[in-house]
Design a protein that fits this description.
With about 150 residues, this protein is mainly beta. Helices cover about 15% and strands about 40% of the residues. The strands form 2 sheets. Strands 1, 2, 5, 6, 10 and 11 form a 6-stranded mixed sheet that branches. It is globular, with a radius of gyration of 18 Å.
């Protein structure tokens, strides 16, 4: 009987660790700290506070990541932040800084990493980079959308 209990515990730990140790794309965060690694390479930034929706459902949860890109070059990375107040209280948002070496004009795209499904989704919305611009806040975030049809 003790063997059965140890076996159940082993499989439970194995199952749970598959969620805890699910890894986002390694190129997004090479040192695993949840922060954008190349901040020193850029002189300008803009910020976006956003909520990510998959097929109309707010999808942000602990461990998810949002990455910003210009072309194939990553320009920002953010883990979720819990919203403690307002109409989105109890949900998670992304307070992302996006970086550039030009003052304006680059098209920014996004990818969303969902830790629960260990999947990366392309975000439908794009933004034009403008240094020092701020979009959204925790009361009225920018809404980013994606679907499972990617």
């Amino acid at each position: 009987m003790k063997f059965f209990t140890l076996t159940k515990q082993f499989f439970l730990v194995l199952f749970l660790s598959s969620f805890i140790f699910a890894d986002p794309p390694p190129e997004w965060d090479s040192d695993g700290d949840g922060n954008f690694d190349d901040v020193n390479l850029y002189q300008n930034s803009m910020s976006i506070t956003s909520a990510v929706f998959i097929e109309g459902v707010n999808a942000g949860s602990d461990g998810d990541l949002l990455a910003a890109f210009v072309g194939d070059e990553q320009r920002g990375l953010q883990v979720t932040t819990a919203v403690p107040f307002g109409p989105y209280a109890g949900t998670n948002m992304f307070l992302i800084l996006i970086y550039s070496n030009v003052a304006s004009g680059e098209t920014v795209t996004f990818q969303f990493y969902d830790i629960e499904t260990d999947s990366v989704y392309e975000v439908d919305e794009t933004y034009v980079f403008v240094s020092d611009d701020t979009y959204g806040d925790m009361m009225e975030p920018e809404l980013l959308h994606t679907s499972t049809d990617d």
